[in-house]
Amino acid sequence: MNSGDASETRMQSRTTWLYWVRALLLIAGSGAGYLAWVALHHGAAAGCGAESGCNAVLQSRWAYWLGFPVSLPALFVYVALFATTILLPKRTSPDDERGSWAAIIVLSILVIGAAFWFVSLQVFVIQSFCKYCLTAHACGFAAALICLLHVPFATDPDTPMWAPDAGKRGVPGRAMPVLIMVGVCGVAVLAAGQLLVQKQRNVVTDVKNPAAAVPSTNGSPAGDLPATPNARLVARRVLSLYKDEFVLKLNEVPVLGSPDAPQVIVCLLDYTCVHCRALHPILEQVSRQYSNQLAVVCLPVSLSPECNPYIPRGTSLASSNSCQYARLALAVWRVRPDLHRQFDHWMFEPAKPPSVQQAGEYAAELVGADKLKTALADPWVTQQLRFDCRLHRANWRAADNSALPQIVLGNAISSGPINSIQHLQLLLRQYGGATMGPPAR
Question: How many Å apart are CA 274 and CA 270, to the nearest integer?
Fold first, then answer.
């Protein structure tokens, strides 16, 4: 082997680590790109059901930065680091090479710091884990660490970092604290953006065009409906929506508060929906505060195509368990309306829903096993669940938003999470129609 071949072999061995870095960054970037696509299309990540850890992470406030999916800036950083590793071997002059290494060091510190930040959030705050996020962070962390381990430090202590035409190779050690601090500042900007700016994921659509109609799609049984829900009491304990297309008799459906209250809102909830679970105690509290002034109709709905014909097959908006939970809740109401609130509270109280077996056993304990079995076979349960799903579909088409929980307040449809009781009170004042007196003490 001649000296030229030997020199080329040594050069290839010195740059082999770059191929590993690029491969890891491709995996990390692909994961971030996929999550960005899912977030921008308001979809569900493959394999992430409603009760999964990754759904809890991706539906949390920490999945956003300054209102944008956090996977977008992550993708930008991964791409920037990947591109810099491509340029590095081509930057032959000492000054250009140092510039490339400065970018690699800053980006690597940013990737490592971001990985620590987001993994800590999943461990200590969200207490759930996203497999896509962890894979991207692990690969990004490994790639960044490999980069930092291969930083070529200058042998001459007088090597400048930024002076042109220095003619000396390597990164001076005294420049490392500055470069590291720049990367740390990037992580601080990331954390501050998430801590200080919380994305408002609740969207309220105030529909004020009762003459418009929403066309039927794919032969949907929902038919042509008025574009506005126009929820209003048309008789004592009778609520009409969409010009009598949906009529709710308040003594025949689950209600928080008095069915004789002058103001009524309709809330659609899925027991497996993270934000629905957070909303339910708020609904209980506001119904207590406003006593006989407000009735909250709580209709169980499922976003699983197994019992909701308006959800496309293959769509992972909810687990199949949501169908069984909804049927159990309606069966309890059918047998013992007075115990339905107790069942609902028990279902919504833990951070995650109990198993279907536990829910069935508790329902049987409340109303009796035989009566529960008879109620589950009652066609009313299936019809009511279909009614609730159809109402969700009508709201979806009117507001162009399928997010749960859904709250209908007069002509307005609230879609998505409610942050607090103050948030709900604000919606009631703005869109609820009748002016309520002060909350009961």
Answer: 9
Token pair of 102 as six digits:
């400065």
Instruction: Please name the residues in contact with 131: beta carbons below 8 A apart, sequence gap of 6 or more.
Output: 47, 53, 54
| DSSP label of 66 | T
Q: Which residue has the tokens 């574009």?
A: 227
pLDDT score for 213: 37
Tell me yes or no: is domain 203-431 CATH 3.40.50.2000. Answer: no
Distance CA 257, CA 277 (A): 19
The SS3 of residue 306 is coil
Give the C-alpha separation, 125 to 131, whole Å: 17
CA distance 190 to 113: 10
Tell me the whole-structure pTM to 2 decimals: 0.69
Predicted confidence at residue 221, as pLDDT, reads 41
d(CA 27, CA 135): 8
Helix H, strand E, coil C: the string for 90-147 is: HCCCHHHHHHHHHHHHHHHHHHHHHHHHHHHHHHHHHCCCCHHHHHHHHHHHHHHHHH
Question: What superfamily would CATH give domain 3-196?
Answer: VKOR domain (1.20.1440.130)
Whether the upstream peptide bond of residue 300 has omega within 30° of 0, thus cis, is no
The pLDDT value given to residue 159: 85
Can you spell out the DSSP letters for 200-231? ---EEEE---TT-EEPP-TT-TT-SEESS---
What the block records as the tokens of 40 is 């921008």
Write the Ramachandran bin of 66: left for phi over 0, alpha for psi from -120 to 50, otherwise beta: left
In the chain, where the domains are located: 3-196, 203-431
The β-bridge relationship of strands 255-256 and 213-214 is unpaired
Closest by Cα among 57, 78, 39, 66 to 192: 66
Q: What are phi and psi of 246, to 5 degrees?
A: -125, 120
Q: What is the pLDDT of residue 202?
A: 84
- The DSSP line for 385-396 is HHHHHHHHHHHH
What is the token pair recorded at 438?
Answer: 């002060």
Residue pair 306/323 in contact (Cβ under 8 Å)? The answer is yes
The DSSP 8-state label assigned to residue 349 in this structure reads S
What pLDDT score does 67 carry?
84
Distance CA 276, CA 289 (A): 20
Q: Hey, what amino acid is at 228?
A: T
Segments of the chain with pLDDT less than 50: 1-4, 6-11, 210-223, 434
